[in-house]
Amino acid sequence: MIPMKDSFISVFQKRAILVNVSLTSPYGTSDKGRESERIDSFEELSQLSYTVGAIVVGKVVQKRPAPDSAYYIGRGKADEMSYLIKEKKPDYIIFNNDLSPAQVRNLESVLQTRVIDRTELILAIFGIHARTKQAKLQLELAQLEYALPRLKHLWSHLSRLAGGVRGARGPGEKQLEVDRRLAFNRITNLKKELKRIQIRRKQEVSSRSDNFTVALVGYTNAGKSTLMNTITNLKQLTEDKLFSTLDTKTNIWELSNGQRVLLSDTVGFIRNLPSNLLSSFHATLEEVRQADLLLHIVDASSPDAEEQISAVNSVLKEIQCDNKEIIIILNKIDLADSLELQLLQREFPAGCPISALKRTGLQELENRIDDIMSRRQRELTVKIPVENGRLMAYLYERAVILSKSSDDSSFKVRVRLGYRDLQKAKELGLKVR
Questions:
Q1: If we measure between CA atoms, which residue out of 291, 8, 285 comes closest to residue 134?
Q2: Which one of 270, 327, 330, 399 is at 20 to 30 Å from 91 when CA atoms are compared?
Q3: How confident is the model at residue 211, as a pLDDT?
C-alpha cells in the first residue's frame, strides 16, 4: 500500500472530540433527501470511533440549514470549539460529515488540531480489518481516490514509489505534479487488477449456478457473521464492532430436510457509505449481485432498525440489487424491547424473527427458504443413460419435460426443474455441466 504519513489515521488510545452537524430545512425539519437522518448519529459515530480505538472526551452538535462553505460548522462555532479543545486537549476532531479538503484545512487552522471526516474514519476502520490481498487492493484504491484531491494537504510524498530513483521528477516538474501523476498511475493499475479479480469472481460465482445461492446483507454489526457461524458451523470472526467482516465468505448450509444451499456472508453496509469505497468493493459484492435470494439481517434490538433497513435498501438500489427476492430477518429478538419488536413486526409483517446467538426461529427461516427453492426453477438440457430409469421416472414425476430425443445409449432431455428437486436429481445421477 502506498505509504502516506499521517494521511490515514491511527487513533488507538487517542483522545477525540466528536462533531455532528445535522442539516435541516429552513422550516426546522430534517431534509427528506438526506437518507436515514433519524439514525442516532452520535451513537453510530461513537461506535465508529470505538472501532478504531479512540477515547471520546467530548461531543459537539450543531443544526444548520446547509453546510458553511469554508468551515462546514461555521466560523463562529469553530471559534467556540476552541475553548472546548483547550479544556479537553484532544488529539483529533472527528466529524460525522464529509468535509472538503478546504474545509479540513480551514478547521485545522482555527482549531490547531487534526480534523478527520466520516469517510476517512470509515477508511481507517476498513484498514484495520482488511486481511486478504483483494480487500487490501480495494481499500488502497478507495484511499487513493479519497486522498487525490487532498494531496496538497499531505506533506508525505508518493514519490517514494519511484524507489528513490534519481530523475523520477522531470525537469521543472513540481512535487505535487509528481504525486498526482503517481497517484493516477497507481489508481489506473489498481482498477485494472480489481477488474480482473471481479471477472474471475463473477466466473466463480456463475460456476455455482446449479446451486441455490443465498447472500447475507445488512447494516454493519447486525449479526450476519453470527448467523453464518450458527447455521454452517463456520468459525469466522465475530466482534461487537463495525465492519468486522470485509471479505465475502461462502459455505454450504445444509437444511434440516437435507437440501443444501450456498450461503455467503458479505461486508456490512452503513448510512452514507462512501461512494468511492462502494465502487472499490465491487468484486466483493459480486456474491450479492449473483445470489438467488438475499437475507436482509436487521438488528431488531436497535432503536434505529427501520432507518438501518432504509439505509441498506438504498445501497442495494445503488448496486442494482433492489429487484431481488429478499427475506427480512429480524435478528437479536432476545435483546429487543417487546413493544418495539411488535411495532417492527407490524411494519414488516413478512419479517422472520430469529436470534442467531440463541438459535431460535431458525426452523421457520429454513421453511421459508425451502418454499422459495421449490418455486424457483431452472431449465436444463441433460443426457441420461438409458439404463438410469429411476432418474427418468423422477424427472417425469417432478419436472416439466420441454423436449426429449434419444439414441441407442442415452436420452437427451430438456427439462424445467425446481432447485429443491434438482438436488435429489443429482443424487440419482443427474450431471449438470
A1: 285
A2: 270
A3: 78
